[in-house]
Amino acid sequence: MQTLHRDHGGNLDAAVARFGGRRDAWLDLSTGINPTPYPVPEIPAASWRDLPDKGANAALIDAARQFWEVPAHMGVLAVPGASAAIAQMPRLAPAGSVSILGPTYNEHAASFTAAGWQISDAAAQASVHVHPNNPDGRLADPATMSGELRIIDESFCDVMPEQSLILLGDTPGTLILKSFGKFWGLAGVRLGFVIGDQALLNRLADMLGPWAVTGPALHIGRIALQDMRWAQETRLRLQADSDRMDQMMTQAGASLVGGTTLFRLYDVKDAQDWQTRLAQHHIWSRIFPYNPRWIRLGLPPGHGWAHLEAALA
Question: How many Å apart are CA 103 and CA 288, to the nearest integer?
Answer without folding.
Answer: 10
